[in-house]
Specification:
Number of strands: 0
Largest sheet: none
Number of domains: 1
Structural class: mainly alpha
Keywords: Membrane, Transmembrane, Transmembrane helix
Number of helices: 2
Distance between the termini: 23 Å
Shape: elongated
Helix content: over 70%
């Protein structure tokens, strides 16, 4: 029974990671960018988002 529950949680976490991973990483990148460079440019954030979408779409296969 515990094996079954473990498989369910593993599958759930994988699907959540693949759905929300790029968005969370982009938000984290934006926050870190603003913390390190308060007056810096904003244009790296959408480029990072596109990069994360390509990486997740291409290399994260379940």
């Amino acid at each position: 029974m515990m094996n079954f529950v473990g498989k369910i949680f593993k599958r759930l976490l994988r699907s959540l990671f693949s759905m929300y991973g790029p968005a969370l990483l982009t938000l984290l990148f934006a926050v870190v960018l603003v913390q390190f460079f308060p007056d810096g440019p904003v244009w790296p954030v959408p480029i990072f988002l596109v990069f994360m979408l390509v990486i997740f779409g291409r290399y994260v296969k379940w």
